[in-house]
Amino acid sequence: MKLSSTCILAITTAVSLIRCDSFQQHVLQDKDIPIVKSVAIIGGGAAGTSTAFWLSNVFPHEGSVQVTSTIFERNSYLGGRSTAVPIKGDYSLGIIELGASIFVEANKNLMKATEVFGLNRTKLTSLEEEVSAKNRPGLGVWNGQNFVFEESGSYWDSMKALWRYGLTPFKFQSKQKEVVKRFMDLYDTDHGFEHISEVVKSLEYQSLLNMTAEAYLKELGINERFSQEILQTATRGNYCQDLNALHALAVMVSMEAGHGTWAVESGNYNIFEEFARRSQAAIQLQTKVVAINNITEVDTNGNAVQRYVVETTNGASQVFDEVVLATPIKFSGIHALPFPTRQEERPYHAVYVTLVAGNPDPSYFGRTLENMPTFVVSTGAPLVDKFEDGQAPFNTFSVHRFLENGESVVKIFSSQELKDEFLDKLFLDRSWTFRKGWHAFPKLEPIAKDQTFPSFILKASEEDESGIIYTGAFENFISL
Ligand SMILES: *[C@@H]1O[C@H](CO)[C@@H](O)[C@H](O)[C@H]1NC(C)=O
Ligand SMILES: *[C@@H]1O[C@H](CO)[C@@H](O)[C@H](O)[C@H]1NC(C)=O
Ligand SMILES: *[C@@H]1O[C@H](CO)[C@@H](O)[C@H](O)[C@H]1NC(C)=O
C-alpha cells in the first residue's frame, strides 16, 4: 500500500487535510498486526464530519492501518451551520435551511456525496414555478427607495440569467471561468498542502487575494454600475459583505452560483450526518471540548510518541493519537491548546438570520403584492445614501414558501439583529418569528503582503513533527 498518495487534500464545503506520514512509519515496521490510531475530531460540521468520512475511506476498518474517530460536537446535532428548522416548529409544513442553503455545481464532493448517499437534490425550481405562475418578479435590487434592477425567476436563476443573456461582461466571464477552472483542477491532484499559501501560489491566486474586489474589478475595466448593482448583489447574497471589504476571489466564487446551484430536498445537513454515519465515528453530541494537552508516551519499541489528551466540560478526558480541530479556534471555547495560536485567529462576520411566517407588507417597497419581488437584495457601499442610517437594514429578504393559509415564509439575512419594530414595518402580520445570530463566515478581506496563513498543522515550531490539524486554516482564503 502506497500511503503517501493517500495523504490527500479533500475539498468538501470545507477543506480537510488528512495527514498520514506518522502512520506510514508504523506500517513499514510491522505488516501483520494492524495499527490502530485514534483521532479526535472537534466539531461536527462540514469539516469535521467529512474528515471522519475521508479518514474511514483512506483507512478502512479491515485495513492494515485502522483509524477510529471520535467526533466531539457541542450542539445537539451534526452539520454545524448547515442546519434546518421546521417551519413554525411543525415538520408537516416543511423545513427551511437556517445557514448554508445551497451549494454550487462546482463543488464536486457534495455533488458526488448526494449521488452516492441517494439524497434527492433539488434545483429549487418549485418556488420559481410558483412565482412565475403568479407573474411576480424574482430578484429585485433595492436601494432603500426603489428597485434598481429586477429579473424574473428565483434569485439564483437570476444569477444564471445574467450569464445566459450576456448581461455579464465578457471580460468578467472569461476571468471568472479561468479562476474556477484552476480551482477545479485541485480535485485531480493527490498531494496535500501544509500551508494555504502553497495552494494560493499553485493556483496563481495572489493577485485575487491581495486587493479588494472593488479595486480588482476596476482594474479589469468592469463597468462600475454593473459591479455595484449586480456583482455586489451576489456577494451580499452569498457572504453578506460588500466589494470594498472583500477580496476579488470572493466575487468570483459568489458568481459561480450562476452556473447552477443545488440543495438537498430533505436538508443539506443530511450530507454531513451521512458522512458521520458512514465513517463509523463515535459521536459525542452536546459535548464541549475545553482543553487539549499534549503528553509524551513511550511505545512498545521504546520510542517517545506524542499523544493528546482531550478534556470535555463533563470532566472526562480521553487520549488520542491525533487531533483535528474542525471549528474556528476563536469560537471553539477551548481555553488550553498545546501550542500558542494567537496568529491563527481570523475575524468573522456576524450574520443574523430571521425567519418569519406571515404576510409581507409590499408598501414597504412601494409595491403591491402582485409586483413585489420575492427575492430582494439591498444595495451596499457606496449605494447607501437612500437608507435611513446610511446602511441597509438587511442584506437579503427572500420568500421561500407560500403556505396554504396564504402566508409567506420569509428568510432575512442582516448584519444586525432585527428588532420587532422593524419587522412590523416589513410585515402586515407575523405568526412565527425565529432568530439566529452566528459567526457564519470569515471576513473575506484582502490579505496583506506580510500576512501569513496559519498552517493546516498547528505546532510549537516548524521543526516539530507532530501537531494538531486545523481545518480552519483556509479561512479567510475561501468560504464555500
Ligand atoms: C427521493 O425522491 C423519491 C421520489 O419523489 C422518493 O420516493 C424518495 O423517498 C426520496 N428519497 C429521499 C432519500 O428523500
Ligand atoms: C498582488 O499580487 C500580484 C501578484 O503576485 C503582484 O504583482 C501585485 O503587486 C500585488 N499587489 C499588491 C497591492 O500587493
Ligand atoms: C508538548 O509539546 C511541546 C512542543 O512540541 C513540547 O515542548 C513539550 O515537551 C510537550 N509536552 C509534553 C508533556 O509532552
UniProtKB/TrEMBL annotation:
**Molecular function, one GO term:** prenylcysteine oxidase activity
- Residue ranges of the Prenylcysteine lyase domain? 150-479
Q: Which GO terms describe its biological process?
A: prenylated protein catabolic process; prenylcysteine catabolic process
* The UniProt record lists the keyword Phosphoprotein: no
Q: Which Pfam families match?
A: NAD_binding_8, Prenylcys_lyase
Cofactor (UniProt): FAD
Q: Which SUPFAM superfamilies match?
A: FAD/NAD(P)-binding domain
Query: From which domain of life does this come?
Result: Eukaryota
Task: Look up the signal peptide feature and give its range.
Answer: 1-20
User: Which keywords fit this entry according to its UniProt record?
Assistant: FAD, Flavoprotein, Glycoprotein, Oxidoreductase, Signal
Tell me which family the UniProt entry assigns to this protein: Belongs to the prenylcysteine oxidase family.
- The name on file for this protein is Prenylcysteine lyase domain-containing protein
